[in-house]
Amino acid sequence: MDLFDLTGDVAVVTGAQGKLGPIWVEALLDAGASVLALDRPGIAVGAEFKRLAARFGPQRLTSASADACRRAELETALEQCRQTIGPPTILVNNAGIDAPPAADGKGYRLEEIPFETNLRILEVNAAGLFLVTQVFAGAMARAGRGTVINIGSLYASVSPDARLYDHIPSDPPFLKPPAYGASKAAVVNLTKYLSAHLAPYGVRVNTLSPGGVLGGQDPEFKRKFCERVPLGRMATAEDLRGPLLFLASRASAYVTGINLMVDGGFTVW
Ligand SMILES: NC(=O)c1ccc[n+]([C@@H]2O[C@H](COP(=O)([O-])OP(=O)(O)OC[C@H]3O[C@@H](n4cnc5c(N)ncnc54)[C@H](O)[C@@H]3O)[C@@H](O)[C@H]2O)c1
User: Fold this and answer.
1) Where do the DSSP E strands lie in 29-155?
2) Mutation test of ligand 1: which of 19, 157, 208, 239 has the most ligand atoms closer than 8 Å to its C-beta?
3) What share of the chain is helix, strand, coil (3-state, %, to 5)?
4) How far is residue 150's CA from residue 11's CA, in Å, rounded to a whole number?
5) How far apart are the first and last CA of the chain?
């Protein structure tokens, strides 16, 4: 189990106050790392963060604000990381924009999807992820050691199946934004690019692509989704911890540039 031990590591997790953020943060803390939980300015720390802060204390867990698309804010967060818990050795690029059904109460026909909607998703999920990596993995490269885990998605590999959503009242029918999967496919390719360029500096870069994670989805969606999954269920927090720790630790010392699918087999058929 020493292979998975992260004692002495310093991890930065973006999008840390969202649904999956606290799962990554807790897994890293449990494995021994100290963690900087980053999120956008204006996003308050959530109940999960407070629970973990009470359990691990300020020497192990701290929070900061930075927009993934603003370099100056990221540089400030890097400095804050250095001064509070130390220089970063692990980066989890988890921040992202998805668009679940009725997120904005509006539906669009394919030909009506606003240019700006697509652009913003690509900006945050792909260009922002690259910018965050420039800042934090740049620091790791200068120190000669680090690992980056980019959170992808099953939709990096396949198109969303609109039938999973066709029971949801919406006129026009709900469409997952095309830019979401496109941005995640971009993450898979950026991972390969970054892994090649950062390998000489001792920094590994991999994608972890979750399938659908069990949350507040409606029962009909869950039923239809699970029918599509060879393992017959949605992912739980427990399903995500092991793959993250594998990529974050020495257990994956000879692994770089891959896309680790954690989707119960969703994408095999
Ligand atoms: N939940 C799932 O089922 C699932 C499945 C596959 C992949 N993913 C991916 O996992 C990641 C986390 O998903 P989630 O479900 O927790 O989403 P979420 O919406 O709950 O959390 C996303 C977080 O990213 C932050 N964020 C958004 N824009 C930002 C910006 N410009 N700068 C900094 N932070 C920003 C948000 O404030 C939020 O805290 C995303 O990349 C998502 O695409 C999620």
Assistant:
1) 34-39, 61-65, 90-93, 146-151
2) 19
3) 45, 15, 40
4) 13
5) 34
Within 10 angstroms of residue 4's Cβ, the number of other Cβ atoms is: 15
Q: What is the pLDDT of residues 180-238, one digit of tens each?
A: 999 999 999 999 999 999 999 999 999 999 999 999 999 999 999 999 999 999 999 99
CATH class of 68-268: alpha beta
Its pTM stands at 0.98
Q: How far apart are CA 153 and CA 126, in angstroms?
A: 13
Task: Report the number of secondary-structure helices (H) and strands (E) in the chain.
Answer: 8, 7
The answer to whether the peptide bond before residue 22 is cis (omega within 30 degrees of 0) is: no
| Nearest one of 116, 117, 120, 193 to 150, comparing CA atoms | 193
Please say whether the beta carbons of 37 and 17 come within 8 A. Answer: yes
Task: Return contacts of 102-107, CB within 8 angstroms, 24+ apart.
Answer: 102/168, 102/170, 102/174, 107/170, 107/171, 107/172, 107/173, 107/174, 107/175
> What tokens were used for 2?
């020493």
10 beta partners: 34
Cα(261)–Cα(268) distance, integer angstroms: 10
- Residue nearest (by alpha carbon) to ligand 1 atom 36: 15
Residue 62, ligand 1, Cβ within 6 A: no
**178 CA from centroid of ligand 1 (Å):** 16
Residues 81-127 have pLDDT tens digits of: 999 999 999 999 999 999 877 655 577 899 999 999 999 999 999 99
